[in-house]
Design brief:
The protein has 205 residues and is mostly helical. It is 89% helix and 0% strand. It is built from seven helices and no strands.
């Protein structure tokens, strides 16, 4: 029992840690650009995404994880697959109000008296991060589904592969192409897409 707990739990925990490293890499590169507005905008953007998007996405996916685990435990893999697909559909519906909030969050922060330059950077960053959140949501759902099947190493490997590439994307878009916060947002979305797509492809093999 203890072996099974650590066999599934440790890779699952490391997968969550690896996702947080994406934000750390962003802040690392932003800090070396010497622009306090970019650093503040990305920091505020990450906090906003965690509060208004990630929290809701992961809460919705946790329900699917619970129901999928029960179905898999009863040996009903067909039902587990149905729950997964229904979860994907419901997640897309949930993403609609999340997108609306994130694409208009600038007005709330300005009303709250935040620095206008930082808020502008944050909103620009958000325009390019939001598309990747859909991939994050589907990828997180796939990860939880695999965990419920007792497969936890695959999501960890896919996340590690994406993290390895993420630093290169940030350097390419934000620094080499000098796109600033746009480059950071593009890098995050691309990394989330790579994690999600690679996980789904590898699941079929």
């Amino acid at each position: 029992m203890s072996y099974e707990f650590y066999r599934i739990g440790i890779p699952s925990a490391l997968t969550c840690v690896l996702f947080q490293f994406l934000e750390i890499l962003n802040m690392y590169f932003a800090g070396h650009m010497g622009d306090a507005a970019i650093l503040g905008g990305i920091g505020l953007g990450n906090m906003t995404v965690n509060l208004f998007a990630i929290a809701f996405i992961e809460s919705m996916n946790a329900v699917v994880e619970t129901m999928g685990s029960q179905a898999a435990g009863n040996g009903n893999l067909k039902l587990a697959g149905i729950i997964l697909n229904r979860g994907r559909v419901l997640l897309m519906y949930t993403f609609i109000p999340i997108t609306f909030i994130l694409l208009n969050i600038k007005f709330f922060y300005l009303w709250a008296g935040q620095d206008e330059e930082i808020v502008d950077k944050m909103q620009t960053y958000m325009y390019f991060v939001v598309p990747g959140l859909a991939f994050y949501g589907i990828g997180d759902l796939q990860k939880r589904f695999l965990n419920s099947m007792g497969i936890s190493r695959l999501p960890m490997v896919c996340s590690l592969f994406s993290l390895f590439l993420h630093g290169g994307w940030v350097w390419l878009f934000a620094i080499y192409c000098d796109l600033g916060v746009v480059g950071f947002g593009m890098a995050v979305s691309l990394s989330n897409a790579i994690t999600c797509i690679s996980m789904i492809i590898m699941t079929n093999y």
